[in-house]
Amino acid sequence: MPPAHTSVKTVTSSVTSSVVHQSEGSVKLVNRVRSSTSESEVKQSESEQIPLIDQTFPTIIVWRNVALFIYLHIASIYGAYLLLSGSLMWQTIIAGFVFYLMGGLGITAGCHRLWAHKSYKAKLPLRLILTLCQTIAVQNSIHEWSRDHRVHHKYSETNADPHNAKRGFFFAHMGWLCCKKHPAIKEKGAGIDMSDLEADPIIMFQKKYYIPLAIFCSVILPTFIPMFFWGESFLAGYFFVAQFRFCMTLHFTWFVNSAAHLWGQHPYDKNINPAENKFVAVVALGEGWHNYHHTFPWDYKTAELGHYQYNYTKFFVDTMAKIGWAYDLKTVPKNIVMQRVQRTGDGTHPSHHNHIEGGPWGWGDKDIPCKDAALTETLYSLEEDHLIDSASKQG
Ligand code: ZN
Ligand code: ZN
User: Fold this and answer.
1) Which ligand is nearest to the Cα of residue 260, counting in written order?
2) Least confident stretch, 23-32, 42-51, 279-288
3) For residue 36, what pLDDT is reported?
4) Residue 16 and residue 131 share a domain
5) Centre of ligand 1 from the C-alpha of residue 296, in Å
């Protein structure tokens, strides 16, 4: 059972002690909890019940999910064995890759950039294709995935974040799917505006028939297409294209929540955990530039530069825009990005490397930043020297 907080004081003190380790966003949350305590007694007791940043909520394991994941991983190891032992037809290997790409893009270009963040708009044919692709990935319905993701951004690294990285790598990676959700997720999730997605009949249809659709797209299609089109065995289709491919897509997506929230640089905002992680960018089709993404989540590139080799999803969205199926692509202008880099970056942005090597040699070097020069104090200055100095500056 979750420990019951008996007084507001207890909550406030636990919150205060954690502030030092939290990001700007979390501090705002703390303030929100505080202001609600002064606003009304009802809100006060809600904040008491579901603290956002304590560490005391016990982990309640959902054994059904654990059993499913154990089965999936054993089946995937057999799928990998079929691949490594040369038991697969070449068409089957390509089919595995195509299903991986489709599922991946369904998550990155569809669920993530289109539906969760609204960073661009898509016409009907593209929305239908992305819905099919998203269903192949089996990562919950578009509606549920997007709500979880909006909560993840809004309450990042708190109890209301479904894969709160403060609970460690394994929890952020897949542990969160093996245990009961923290009540704060449900509470904050209910406050997230989902009206845009709820107005879309395709999304609501997929939500309503999600389980049969997911079984059809992720198990039946990848198992039987290789059998009927090029005479592959049932075992190869099922264990490689369905199970192994599914397991890989899951782990590559999960790395965004685990590795990219724990390891990497913070050139845009050093106050948040999400980081720039090239490995994750490659395996997750361009979603590893996570410090940029959490700083500017409405940018369709989810990265500042978005070179195609590290951002296949950008290539996909750009291509769709060229044929007219994607439009209204949102992106952040360079000067706004640079202002943010200067204000909150950790100094690892490439623009810093173009700067002088080392530092200025001393007073009078043109490389002393103007602001630093203006604020530098001169002690015991002689009046005549001061006049000469001012005159030479004016000259
Ligand atoms: Zn996101
Ligand atoms: Zn994130």
Assistant:
1) 2
2) 23-32
3) 41
4) no
5) 9
Identify the nearest ligand to the CA of 145 by its number: 1
Provide the sign of the torsion angle of the four alpha carbons 307, 156, 326, 242, taken in this order.
positive
What integer is the mean pLDDT of 78-98?
A: 97
Domain that holds residue 301: 70-337
What is the predicted pLDDT for the residue at 310? 87
Å from CA of 293 to ligand 2 middle: 8
Are residues 14 and 104 located together in one domain of the fold?
no
Mean pLDDT value of segment 108-124? 97
User: Do 161 and 25 share a structural domain?
Assistant: no
The Å distance, Cα 83 to ligand 1 centre, comes to: 33
Q: How many Å lie between the centroid of ligand 2 and the Cα of residue 230?
A: 40
- Look up the pTM and report it: 0.77
Ligand 1 centroid distance, CA of 256 (Å): 9
Please tell me the distance between residue 302's alpha carbon and the centre of ligand 1 in angstroms. 8
Q: How many domains does the chain have?
A: 2
44 with 152, same domain: the answer is: no
Residue 147 belongs to some domain of the structure:
yes
